[in-house]
Amino acid sequence: xxxxxxxxxxxxxVKPSGSLDTMAYVEEQIMNRKKTRRPLRTLIxxxxxxxxxxxxxxxxxxxxxxxxxxxxxxxxxxDLTEVTIEQVSEYEYxxxxxxxxxxxxxxxxxxxxxxxxxxTLDEIEELLISEVVCERGDDGRYWLYIRDHKIDITDQITGxxxxxxxxxxxxxxxxxxVVMNNHGGYGIQTGRxxxxxxxxxxNSIGD
Amino acid sequence: MxxxxxxxxxxxxxxxxxxxxxxxxxxxxxxxxxxxxxxxxTNMRLSLQPAMDRYELxxxxxxxxxxxxxxxxxxxxxxxxxxxFDTDRDFESPEHIRAWLLRTAINxxxxxxxxxxxxxxxxxxxxxxxxxxxxxxxxxxxxAVLRLPVRCRTVMHLFYYEDYSVKETAELLGISENTxxxxxxxxxxxxxxxxxxxxxxxxx
Lengths: 207, 204
Hints:
Strand order of the largest sheet of chain B: 1-2
Number of domains of chain B: 2
Low-confidence stretches of chain A: none
Largest sheet of chain B: 2 strands, antiparallel
Shape of chain B: globular
Mean pLDDT of chain B: 76
Distance between the termini of chain B: 54 Å
Number of helices of chain A: 4
Strand content of chain B: under 5%
Mean pLDDT of chain A: 81
Shape of chain A: elongated
Structural class of chain A: alpha+beta
Order of helices and strands of chain A: HHEEEEEEHEEEEEEH
Oligomer: heterodimer
Largest sheet of chain A: 4 strands, antiparallel
């Protein structure tokens, strides 16, 4: 017996099991394709559409299409700092600082005709850039922050609980009146031509 | 009049989505290529059922010699004929169909062996069960062949069982004739070492 004959005899021992039914398998696969192709295609199409819409939303958000979000530089404790402002509702904006902390702002303005409208992002930006802040430090001293100025006003606080500070770093000067209320808070008003009166500041904060 | 399998002869529907294609599945014969072509350009093709009748065992065995597992070989066999049903290619002869089926089965079997889940699975080596109670000499040879390296036993199988020449085996596997010859020599030498009297020194 030759090697070839031996080999063929041995290979003849290899047989599929009785359950092998290739024809049934092929027919089943063809029928399954008809049943499953359409839902699969639909699912793929829907997923692709969702991904596309999400991608467009993310792109629009990142590019600030529609003006819902803006990064601006504001004065924070005397340093120019980039913050993000985004509109969260008609009258509300959210400011995000570099450390991830948030603060809300917003409000309304009255038009010359007496109608009320929400503040725009431009107005919020203008407000933040010219914002004056008063804080009490850990050492118990009172500090006034305006643009890149950090001013110790502790010694200027009168017995009536207010201080008036003039800041001049350009052609125009800022006249600032800071009033301490009875609850540990502050009221601040600025004027271009003179100091606002402490009474008007107290009235504005309802003290 | 009832349409028997012969009625489907001469029309092989290539569009798998057509419901009429079940005729092509079950139909007996074959087909000629597009009718507007000249006779030199005509191609033939067996319908699925006759192709299976002729080549299913060959395809299964080729897959088994690579997978060394009956279940995997059966899966490969089924997938191979599904691929045959799906393919749009034209065949020149039954021999062409056979070579295509074997090449497809070998490639699919290799893919099965490469699959992660299979590489990390314990092999049951079920050929002992497969050949239990049958020809002990053949069983010993089968056992020895299955212990050869996979490339070696693929070449051996095509050469000794399918009666392909060295050149045809090289073409079918897409390797050089020298590689086929060296794999054959290696396989013969290893079989001789394992089987001694059970394998001759002839090179037929």
